[in-house]
Amino acid sequence: MRESQLQQEDPMDRYKRENRRLQEASMRLEQENDDLAHELVTSKIALRNDLDQAEDKADVLNKELLLTKQRLVETEEEKRKQEEETAQLKEIFRKQLEKAEYEIKKTTAIIAEYKQICSQLSTRLEKQQAASKEELEVVKGKMMACKHCSDIFSKEGALKVAAISREDQGIESDDEKDCLKKQLREMELELAQTKLQLVEAKCKIQELEHQRGALMNEIQAAKNSWFSKTLNSIKTATGTQPLQPPQATQPPKEST
Question: Which regions form coiled coils (predicted)?
Fold first, then answer.
């Protein structure tokens, strides 16, 4: 019955209805096509933006990688230079330390030798003083035993005021007085020379002790400087803050 009704229907109406249905389907498909096209364009834009961001990020990472490699090469080169410098400084300070120790040993030996010399000079001076006193006592005894000398010299060895004139004194007493005076002058001169040698030896000892104190200060300063430079080099190579150098301990000042 439907088929018969459709056959009986006017073909123009049927074609119009079919045309409307196809138009509605076409409009729906066009709307879907527009939606899909808009979605596609939006997806392409989003993908393009993501791609641009990824490329920018990749460029930044590549630059950072190049900078990191360059810094690594520079750091390795600096580390190598620091190691070479540290080795050179160690060698220099080792030589200076050996030289300073040798100088200290040499100075100590010289000081000990001078002390021994001073001790010997002091002993010699004491012996000479004792001998001089004995000789003076002997001379005084001889003078007191001599009649002419006892009139001229007192018991303490001072000259007396002559009670008699020169015409009364004999040639023999004058020669004896001159001889005694000459011996006294020679003994006094020898004593003065011995004292001078003792003073010079003490001055030399003081100078050597001062030099030894200066050498000890130089050695301590060299050790502290080497320690500070080594720590700074290590901390600089590792990229951390260098430590402050330790305070130099001053050795006690030696009295001059």
Answer: 12-131, 177-225
Distance in angstroms (rounded) separating the CA atoms of residues 10 and 17: 11
CA distances from 131 to 24, 108, 125, 126 (A): 153, 34, 10, 8
Over residues 108-115, the mean pLDDT reads 83
Q: Could you tell me if 255 and 224 are in contact, meaning their C-beta atoms sit under 8 angstroms apart?
A: no
- Nearest-10 Cα torsion for 201, 206, 212, 217: -170
Take residue 101 and report the two structure tokens written for it. 């120790």
3-state helix, strand, coil in the chain (%, to 5): 85, 0, 15
Tokens of 122: 């002091």
In degrees, rounded to 5, the angle at the alpha carbon of residue 184 between the alpha carbons of residues 178 and 190 is 135
Retrieve residue 157's tokens: 């060895």
The pLDDT tens digits for 221-249 are 777 777 677 777 677 766 544 444 444 44
Integer distance in angstroms from the first to the last C-alpha of the chain? 146
pTM of the model: 0.36
Q: What pLDDT digit, counting tens, does each position of 50-108 carry?
A: 999 999 999 999 999 999 999 999 999 999 999 999 899 889 988 988 988 888 888 88
Q: Which amino acid is at 116?
A: Q
- The amino acid present at 80, given as its one-letter code, is R
Report the alpha-carbon distance of residue 123 to residue 165 in Å, rounded: 46
Spatial distance between the Cα atoms of 183 and 142, rounded to a whole number of angstroms: 14
The DSSP code sequence of 77-95 is: HHHHHHHHHHHHHHHHHHH
Q: Is the CA virtual torsion 233, 234, 240, 244 positive or negative?
A: negative
Task: Report the alpha-carbon distance of residue 89 to residue 87 in Å, rounded.
Answer: 5
